[in-house]
């Protein structure tokens, strides 16, 4: 984008906010609004066989993910991680939309699950 070789892209957060700020990219279509507002741009998947054989492990994974995403602001909160691990600057981090997975489906409601 910086060199001008890209005319358009589908960019998920936090890079959407970063490219807008750093390169002047503008949103033409927001793929995270309307009927797709709560659809994640990334995710985790496992077979029913694996999750059924390891229900406690799967539940612990979901709790950990929800705890991390749902954590309040602070030195280990999601915005701090944006700054330290993804190198989003201090001024851009508050502008990034962070999904709340606490209302995500359980194993039986996961996409792709045969149950």
What's the helix and strand layout?
Layout: H1 15-23, H2 48-53, H3 55-70, H4 78-85
- Helix count, DSSP H or I runs of 4 or more residues: 4
Q: How would you state the average pLDDT, rounded?
A: 75
Main beta-sheet strand count, sense and barrel state: none
Weakly predicted, low-confidence segments: 107-115
Count every beta strand, where a strand is a DSSP E run of 2 or more residues.
Answer: 0
- What structural category do the secondary elements indicate? mainly alpha
Global outline: globular
Oligomer: single chain
Radius of gyration: 17 Å
- Proportion of residues in extended strands: under 5%
Give helix and strand order, one letter per element, not per position: HHHH
**How much helical structure, as a percent, in the residues?**
25-40%
Terminal-residue CA separation: 43 Å
Summarize the structure.
This protein has 115 residues and is an all-alpha fold. The chain has helices spanning 15-23, 48-53, 55-70, 78-85. The chain has 4 helices and no strands.
Descriptive account of the structure:
With 115 residues, the chain is an all-alpha fold. The protein has helices at residues 15-23, 48-53, 55-70, 78-85. The longest helix has 16 residues, at 55-70. The relative contact order is 0.16. Residues 107-115 have low confidence and may be disordered.
Sum up the structure in keywords.
115 residues; mainly alpha; globular
């Amino acid at each position: 984008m910086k060199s001008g070789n890209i005319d358009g892209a589908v960019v998920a957060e936090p890079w959407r906010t970063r490219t807008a700020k750093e390169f002047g990219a503008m949103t033409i279509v927001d793929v995270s609004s309307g009927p797709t507002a709560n659809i994640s741009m990334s995710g985790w998947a496992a077979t029913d066989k694996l999750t059924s054989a390891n229900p406690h492990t799967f539940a612990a994974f979901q709790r950990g993910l929800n705890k991390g995403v749902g954590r309040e602001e602070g030195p280990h909160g999601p915005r701090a991680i944006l700054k330290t691990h993804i190198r989003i600057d201090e001024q851009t981090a508050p502008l990034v939309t962070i999904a709340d997975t606490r209302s995500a489906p359980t194993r039986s409601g996961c996409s792709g699950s045969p149950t």
